[in-house]
Design a protein that fits this description.
- It is a single chain.
- With 157 residues, the protein is mostly helical.
- It folds into two domains: 116 residues, Arc Repressor Mutant, subunit A (Orthogonal Bundle), CATH 1.10.10.10; 40 residues, no CATH class.
- It is built from eight helices and two strands.
- A two-stranded antiparallel sheet has the order 1-2.
- Strand 1 and strand 2 form a beta hairpin.
- Helix 2 packs across helix 6, helix 3 crosses helix 5 and helix 3 crosses helix 6.
- It is globular, with a radius of gyration of 18 Å.
Length: 157
């Protein structure tokens, strides 16, 4: 698990996807991360710069600068919340959707190469066990933080 976390921390799939873009694309890993966050989070709620900062675990002013850069590059657009007209939201533009689709293609290719020698039964078993692991970890994390005395997650609850 530690090795997987290190690989994900290095954002190896994003690095592969970025390396496949044309010269002069101007994209950085942090740009890619925010496009992915807006794409995913935007499926079930409005996305604000604050929610981007929280998910990226970065300062809101840094998130604001990156979002502004993505707006200039035509990947994101700013809008007004339908729930609260005082709140600004960000959404993907067509170019942002294309960039996210590129990342998803790369992700599927990487996983496909990784699993190409696995049997259908192995893949199915892995999928079930990994889903169970993530679900159980997600459900138990708040209690673990509380029981083990961590203040970090408790303040987020």
């Amino acid at each position: 698990m530690g090795h997987l976390r290190m690989m994900m921390g290095r954002r190896f799939m994003s690095r592969i996807a970025l390396s496949q873009l044309a010269e002069g694309h101007g994209m950085e890993l942090s740009h890619f991360d925010i496009v992915k966050i807006v794409a995913h989070t935007g499926l079930y709620q409005e996305v604000t710069v604050g929610s981007v900062a929280e998910q990226m675990r970065i300062d809101p002013s840094r998130a604001s600068r990156i979002v502004a850069d993505l707006v200039r590059q035509g990947m994101l657009q700013r809008g007004v919340s339908q729930q609260d007209a005082r709140r600004a939201i960000v959404t993907l533009t067509k170019r942002g959707q294309e960039l996210n689709a590129h990342f998803e293609r790369v992700r599927r290719e990487v996983l496909g190469h990784t699993l190409q020698d696995w049997s259908v039964e192995d893949i199915h078993q892995f999928e079930q066990l990994f889903s169970r692991f993530i679900r159980d970890l997600d459900c138990r994390t708040p209690k673990l933080f509380k029981d083990m005395g961590s203040k970090e997650l408790q303040s987020d609850e």
